[in-house]
Automatic annotation (TrEMBL):
The keyword Chaperone does not apply. Ca(2+) binds at residues 195, 333, 336, 523. Belongs to the peptidase S45 family. CDD domains: Ntn_PGA_like. This is Penicillin acylase family protein. One of its GO terms (biological process) is antibiotic biosynthetic process. It comes from the Bacteria. Gene3D superfamilies: 1.10.1400.10, 2.30.120.10, Glutamine Phosphoribosylpyrophosphate, subunit 1, domain 1 (3.60.20.10), Penicillin Amidohydrolase, domain 1 (1.10.439.10).
Length: 818
């Protein structure tokens, strides 16, 4: 017995020692990939010494003798901090995620291959102007110099993720940067999803279904089924779960994911300090690390500072000494889905405008981790690449014997968008910037500009030219063989949509269509947000940096302010006080809270939770009768539709009546039933005390690590979770998941914020949603996340002396003969 006990003790001690040794070994290799910022590296590819001065927040300030060396150093700095993210973004654009993630990434790879993101990027390299090609080459050399340093110094493979997802890191090429920009463009637009949804609504309810997503300014449109006489549709089936949110972010960005932003500026005469002010906050999916990276470059044209995206050698939103600029994805209709009829008995041919023609086909091989490689056949019609029917709900709207082709302004070779963005950050005036943006193709952008003389806004990017005779106007999938529906061409945005001298000294956009911009399409961003932003700007004659910050982090819901007075018009205080503990009393208490609420979506209040739950239940009850099972797919909230219904605009009040029942229900009855259902659900989850409920308990920002975020144990280290204020319609966007067990989870937001003050440029402020480093063990992995959550910022200066005085590390690059 004693001998057995001794051996058990020895075995236990041995296992403990082995476990500690294993943890120590893992820790050692993990921290080996943390870059040393106080270091000197001898590198080939630069012509003279370069300094990368790191601020307290790990922001690199790059000083070199020429632009080539500065872009080289930016590539090296990006790779130091975000090598895994850059590699994943590149793989997502190439359609090669399955090589490291396995079969789960096959759908993403399949779609990227069919869109031709990388193929078109390769074909676009020579289309860039000479300075841009030189910058791309220098940037690539810098990335590769750090990869060489990782290999020479055994620096933990450059990032700890590479131990769990082994990968041969190929050297960076200029086409890789262009491919990431293509991926960004494909991710910024949601037109494909919107068209499919419109078609599904039309199939589910031919008479009124499209009213849910339509705007009041739209011309009438035929029912989707009438476009394909005698066609058989699969119909709306039971809900098939899409890949979850985390899976969809395997590559940080995903086509049709969607993006937004606010951008506004006021002229010097409207500011307290006498210099123009500009604010910008691009809004994307929340990831860890975030998409953005702060940097300062000292170029021959002068210093520039602001937000970059690792893999792209440009300050996309920021300022120089003379100019400030901010980007907002323009909500233009840049995609059309065409339904192509396949020739019976011959899958390689389809119906063209003048008879049956051959698809353009080619085969590509996708390698899959742990499995056999898959060969896919890519087909393309005259309208564009054929998309996989199993993705984006396309199968639900395809007639039998048909496939779907996508026409997209960004789906072409010779794309000069990188040239436009590189020229933008080196412009000196608004006029220079507007001219620089002419080559932009995709993503189409509303670019807000400010210089010492004033402000302006430019709509830049390619727009499809459609026949005026088309009844669809790009709003819904259409027959690919019909000449009236086909694109006539792709043109730059007209100069009439550029305003460099606004009469009131103010320009502002949230992505919603501006007056006179109907040419860009009928789908638009939430118009209530645009109205709220204009109200915040117009409420003051004179603005300051602080008033711009207050507007940028504003969490008042304009939806709530617009809808509650009409939805609850017949419910406020209409009954005698009910006994405590009854459902009637709970409803009265909820209405009392909402009646005294100003619409602020504060994480500390119960009202945002009650309102959001009520509106979800209300929309579901209104549409369920008409569109049936499709209701499960209608996860987005449409406030314009709810307001039209309750105001009975064009007879929309009929939506409240449940056709299957004999009585005629009123909107007030439906509103009451929806509120009761919402309160019952919330009570089951949080208890009966309404005053104790908190919006922040469910509305939590989840910055998910695309690779490690779902791994048990590691997820607690790499994911960042924090309660947040705001909602889907607030200026400080905090977009919700809108499905699953917690539909209120905050999954999108302003991953970068900047406010640029040209009266006192060094007082300009910046913030990103996580931190500069992509290394989970770095203190800079999440050191800005709490500042971001609280609506705070950091300052960044173009003054070299200030940068060096506050430096926490200086990396020196010394040239060596090649």
């Amino acid at each position: 017995m004693v001998t057995l006990f001794r051996w058990l003790v020895r075995l236990t001690v041995g296992l403990i020692v082995a476990g500690v040794a294993l943890i120590a070994l893992v820790w050692y290799f993990a921290i080996r990939s943390l870059p040393a910022y106080n270091a000197t590296y001898d590198v080939a590819g630069i012509t003279s010494p370069v300094e990368i001065v790191r601020s307290t927040e790990d922001v690199p300030h790059i000083f070199g003798k020429n632009d080539h060396d500065v872009f080289f150093a930016l590539g090296l700095a990006h790779a130091q901090d975000r090598l895994f993210q850059m590699n994943v973004l590149r793989r997502a654009a190439q359609g090669r995620l399955a090589e490291i993630y396995g079969a789960g990434a096959l759908p993403a790879d399949d779609l990227a291959r069919r869109l031709g993101l990388f193929r078109n990027a390769v074909a676009s390299v020579e289309a860039q102007d000479a300075p841009t090609r030189a910058a791309l080459a220098a940037y690539s050399e810098g990335v590769n110099a750090w990869i060489q340093q990782v290999n020479l110094g055994a620096r933990g493979r450059g990032a700890p993720e590479f131990f769990l997802f082994p990968d041969e890191i190929s050297y960076w090429e200029p086409a890789d940067s262009l491919a990431i920009l293509k991926l960004l463009a494909a991710s910024s637009t949601t037109q494909l999803r919107r068209e499919v949804l419109r078609a599904r609504l039309s199939l589910a309810a031919p008479e009124r279904g499209q009213e849910v997503v339509a705007t009041t300014a739209e011309p009438p449109m035929p029912a989707y089924a009438t476009l394909f006489p005698d066609a058989r549709f699969a119909g709306v089936e039971r809900h098939v779960p899409h890949p979850d949110w985390n899976t969809g972010l395997a590559g940080y960005l995903s086509p049709s994911l969607g993006a937004s932003a606010n951008g506004w500026a006021v002229a010097p005469r409207r500011t307290a300090a006498g210099g123009a002010l500009l604010a910008n906050d691009p809004q994307f999916a929340l990831t860890a690390p975030g998409l953005w990276y702060l940097a300062r470059l000292e170029l021959a044209s002068g210093g520039v500072i602001g937000g970059t995206i690792p893999g792209i050698p440009a300050v996309l939103s920021g300022r120089s000494a003379d100019l400030a600029w901010g980007i907002t994805p323009a909500q233009i209709d840049d995609q059309d889905l065409f339904i192509e009829e396949v020739q019976p008995g011959d899958p390689d041919r389809y119906r063209g405008a003048n008879g049956w023609v051959d698809f353009t086909t080619r085969n590509e091989t996708i390698r899959v981790k742990g499995e056999a490689a898959r060969t896919i056949t890519l087909r393309e019609s005259e309208n564009g690449p054929i998309l996989p029917a199993g993705q984006l709900d396309i199968a639900s709207i395809l007639p039998a014997g048909h496939v779907a082709a996508l026409a997209w302004t960004g789906g072409q070779a010779g794309d000069t968008s990188m040239t436009a963005l590189m020229s933008l950050m080196q412009s000196r005036t608004r006029e220079d910037a507007a001219q620089a943006l002419v080559p932009l193709v995709a993503p189409a952008l509303n670019v807000t500009l400010a210089d010492k003389n004033g402000v302006g806004q430019v709509l830049a990017g390619a727009l499809p030219e459609r026949s005026p005779d088309s009844p669809i106007h790009g709003r819904m999938p259409q027959p690919g063989w019909s000449a009236v529906h086909r694109w006539l061409g792709v043109n730059p945005a007209p100069t009439t949509l550029t305003d460099l001298r606004p009469e009131g000294g103010v320009v502002a956009t949230t992505g919603a269509a501006q007056p006179g911009q109907q040419i860009v399409g009928f789908d638009r961003a939430n118009p209530y947000r645009q109205d709220r932003l204009r109200h915040l700007i117009d409420s003051r004659e004179v603005h300051s940096r602080d008033s711009f910050i207050a507007a940028q982090i504003d969490v008042v819901s304009p939806d709530a302010r617009a809808l509650l007075p009409v939805v609850a018009a017949e419910l406020w205080f209409t009954d005698e006080p009910a006994p405590q503990g009854t459902p009637e009393r709970q409803r009265q208490d909820a209405l009392s809270l909402l009646a005294n609420w100003d619409g602020t979506m504060s994480e500390h209040l119960p009202e945002p939770l009650i309102y959001s739950s009520w509106m979800r239940a209300l929309q579901e009850r209104i549409v369920q009768d008409e569109i049936g099972p499709l209701t499960q797919h209608l996860t987005e909230f449409y406030p314009e539709f709810i307001e039209r219904v309750f105001r009975n605009i064009n007879g929309a009040g009929e939506w409240c009546d449940i056709r299957q029942s004999t009585p005629v229900e009123t909107c007030t009855q439906i509103a009451r039933q929806a509120l009761d259902a919402a309160l019952l659900e919330l009570t089951d989850r949080f208890g009966p005390d309404l005053a104790s409920w908190r919006w922040g308990d469910v509305h939590r920002a989840r910055h998910v690590h695309p690779a490690l975020g779902d791994l048990r144990g590691l997820s607690y280290i790499v994911n960042l979770v924090q309660p947040t204020s705001g909602g889907d319609s607030t200026i400080a966007l905090a977009g919700m998941l809108n499905e699953g067990t917690n539909p209120y989870l905050n999954v999108t937001g302003a991953t970068y914020r900047g406010v640029y003050d040209l009266a006192d440029p060094d007082s300009s402020v910046f913030i990103i949603s996580t931190g500069q480093s992509g290394h989970p063990l770095s203190r800079h992995y999440d050191d800005m996340s709490e500042l971001w959550r609280r609506g705070e910022y950091v300052r960044m200066s173009l003054d070299p002396d200030l940068a060096r005085a506050a430096a926490t590390g200086v990396t020196r690059l010394e040239p060596v003969p090649e």
